[in-house]
UniProtKB/TrEMBL annotation, chain A:
It comes from the Bacteria. InterPro entries: PhnH-like_sp, Phosphonate_metab_PhnH. This is Alpha-D-ribose 1-methylphosphonate 5-triphosphate synthase subunit PhnH. GO terms for molecular function: alpha-D-ribose 1-methylphosphonate 5-triphosphate synthase activity. GO terms for biological process: organic phosphonate metabolic process. Its EC number is 2.7.8.37.
From TrEMBL, chain B:
This is Alpha-D-ribose 1-methylphosphonate 5-phosphate C-P lyase. It comes from the Bacteria. Pfam families: PhnJ. Keywords: Lyase. GO terms for molecular function: 4 iron, 4 sulfur cluster binding; alpha-D-ribose 1-methylphosphonate 5-phosphate C-P-lyase activity. InterPro entries: PhnJ.
Length: 204, 284
């Protein structure tokens, strides 16, 4: 079986729609990811490539964060015709698993946040993480969430604070998509408010 | 299914463009994201925005329902349904509960929408401020600055002139306390259904080249004043002459021969479902 660029990418898109409209909802891309050709996955995960194939074309610019950034950029460019560009101009920022520590924060701080007239000209940040089902507990609130939603994310950075700073002037801001090694997808659009869910210790 | 066309009519490049715009629209509830709006085999202004959203979303396992002012059988709805099912081969239905994608012109169905459904509304005029500001550049600035006094003033003038807000349909709403949005020409009766909706609502304006969205569980408030609160159409003491339903949106019909006024459900599939529940016909 090979990846069907019409039907499989339609499924990926619907999962992106589900996860973006319901932050905290984790979508499973493993079925589609298993169809991505081994030889195309040069340096990046199959699920990241799926998102690139779903959304990227010659009108899109992107920037890869990884020691192998040039190599991965070339692959994505050849597969989608999207153009690699600078951090501050890119429509999509791709933070790979092997990116230097601090890359996510750097991306969040420098990504384009749109303008008040055109807030949609902001960047999507797509992050490869170890797991979107274990790790630090985060409490989510905002549009798409009934009351609150609890998610677990395994990222060793102060990205929550940087994101909050970046998104403080709504509707300006950045939208985040996390994918993990098991091809599970979690989206945090700019409207979602995150609180680190610290366990309160009781003095008994 | 007609295989001379691409699946879902569009080429993949066109779908990608709409998909990127739609994801941004979901991330910024109520904000109108510009998109390319391709030429469609139906005229602009006849539901092309909704149709393009439907085509960009639809997959082989979807079940599609299309309604036009509450009716599954009007020309516009039938044509759109035919085009989509001819180019995708997906099943269509009249039953709201069975559909996964519901494209609608000017109504939100009576049967409450569920989590796994997406409602797509066709929008003729996406800009709620256009009535008093003809320049797109200016309205974008007003939205950017959250400067909505004109929208309130418009309603205030209606109250001064006519004693109440006279927006028959398309009564402006405030989404997520940020953007004033045109809910498409749904009757005021349907406005409250947008608030904290269980289903995702996408709105597409083909001629005006805009898509926007109301994610599930998002605050949507109809604009009003403390002393002149928003009032949906009231059908108190009235019921459908066919199925007897109350508390639904009713059409007022006049029999010209007898001059008699009667009321009937606007949502035809809801009416038929209710009738069938009461008196099942056919052999069991």
């Amino acid at each position: 079986m090979t990846l069907d660029i019409v039907h499989d990418l339609q499924s990926v898109y619907r999962k992106l729609v589900d996860s973006t409209s319901r932050p905290g909802l984790i979508s499973d891309l493993s079925k589609q990811a298993s169809l991505v050709e081994e030889e195309d996955q040069k340096g990046c995960s199959a699920s990241l490539l799926l998102i690139a194939l779903t959304l990227f074309d010659q009108e899109v610019s992107f920037k890869v964060f990884s020691p192998q950034a040039d190599y991965v950029s070339q692959t994505i460019n050849q597969l989608t015709y999207a153009k690699p560009t600078d951090l501050k101009k890119a429509d999509f920022l791709l933070i790979l698993q092997d990116a230097e520590k601090g890359s996510l924060e750097e991306a969040i701080i420098n990504a384009k946040a749109g303008t008040l007239k055109n807030p949609h000209t902001s960047a999507f940040i797509i992050v490869e993480v170890d797991s979107v089902t274990s790790g630090e507990a985060l409490l989510l609130k905002g549009p798409g969430i009934h009351t609150t939603e609890l998610v677990h994310l395994d990222i060793n950075e102060n990205w929550v604070e940087s994101r909050q700073e970046k998104n403080k002037e709504y509707p300006l801001g950045i939208d985040l998509i996390f994918i993990d090694q098991n091809h599970q997808l979690l989206a945090l659009p700019r409207t979602t408010q995150i609180t680190r869910n610290r366990v309160i210790e009781w003095d008994m | 299914m007609n295989t001379a066309y691409n699946f879902a009519f569009f080429d993949e490049g066109s779908k990608r463009e709409i998909r990127r715009a739609t994801l941004k629209a979901i991330a910024i509830p109520g904000y109108q994201v510009p998109f390319a709006s391709r030429e469609m085999p139906i005229g602009r202004g006849w539901g092309t925005g909704g149709l393009q959203l439907t085509l960009s979303l639809i997959g082989k396992n979807d079940v599609l329902k299309v309604i036009d002012q509450g009716s599954d059988e009007s020309v516009n709805a039938v044509n759109i349904k035919k085009l989509v099912s001819d180019t995708t081969g997906v099943a269509t239905t009249d039953h709201t509960a069975e559909a996964s994608l519901i494209q609608s012109r000017h109504r939100i169905p009576e049967v409450p929408l569920k989590k796994d459904q997406i409602l797509i509304l066709q929008v003729p005029l996406p800009e709620p401020l256009r009535y008093y500001e003809p320049s797109e550049n200016e309205t974008k600035k007003l939205h950017g600055e959250k400067e909505y006094s004109g929208a309130w003033l418009m309603l205030f003038e209606q109250i001064m002139k006519y004693g109440s807000m006279t927006t028959g349909a398309d009564h402006p709403v405030m989404v997520h306390d940020r953007y004033v949005m045109a809910p498409s020409p749904i009757p005021r009766f349907d406005n409250p259904k947008m608030n904290e909706s269980e289903a995702l609502i996408l709105l597409g304006a083909g001629r005006e080249k805009k898509v926007y969205a109301v994610p599930p569980y998002t605050k949507v408030v109809s604009l009003d004043f403390e002393d002149y609160p928003f009032e949906p159409e009231s059908f108190e003491d009235k019921h459908c002459r066919l199925c007897g339903s109350t508390g639904v949106f009713l059409d007022e019909l006049v029999d010209e021969a007898t001059d008699e006024t009667f009321y009937q459900c606007n949502d035809t599939s809801y009416c038929i479902e209710t009738l069938n529940e009461v008196e099942p016909f056919g052999v069991k």
